[in-house]
Amino acid sequence: MHPNKRLIVVGDRVLVKAEDGDERTKVGLYLPPTAVDSQAVQGGSIVATGPGLPMPDLAGGSDEPWRTGPARETRFIPMQAREGDYALFFRKAAVEITFEHERYLVVPQTAILALVRERASHPENDEEEPF
């Protein structure tokens, strides 16, 4: 073990601790046998997320892009997925990795079909919970 190492997820990707393929997931979603058999869809808990996609600096549009001006703080398009969510995603888009003897999947946010999230104690703070 290397206690000084940590895994950092970049861009619009999420780190998922996958669950074994069953017809019914631990959070109660039912996966049809065709999805399980073909391994087209898989689910798991999100362990970490990247910061999102960086936004371009639209205010710095110059005819001379090589000239440097004052540095601006990088802003990101926020991720919809969060740590602790359960994600249902396309298996083909996932990349399997092993870190510290644990198996994870790195999944781009665009491959996520649905998220299951615990309801917040203050629903007004979480505008993305339609159900």
Summed up:
This protein is mainly β.
Give structural notes.
The chain is mostly beta strands. The protein has a single domain, classed as 10 Kd Chaperonin, Protein Cpn10, Chain O (Roll). Helix content is 4%, strand content 31%. The protein has one helix at residues 33-37, and strands at 13-18, 41-49, 53-54, 76-77, 86-90, 95-99, 102-108, 112-116. Strand 6 and strand 7 (102-108) form a beta hairpin. It is elongated.
DSSP summary, beta strand count: 8
What is the beta-strand fraction? 25-35%
Q: Indicate how many domains the architecture comprises.
A: 1
**Can you list the strand order of the major beta sheet?**
6-7-1-2-5-8
**Any idea what the radius of gyration is?**
18 Å
CATH class: Mainly Beta
Note the main sheet: 6 strands, antiparallel
Report how far apart the termini are: 42 Å
What's the pLDDT, averaged over the residues? 79
SSE topology:
Blueprint: E1 13-18, H1 33-37, E2 41-49, E3 53-54, E4 76-77, E5 86-90, E6 95-99, E7 102-108, E8 112-116
Key features of this structure:
131 residues; mainly beta; two-stranded antiparallel sheet; elongated
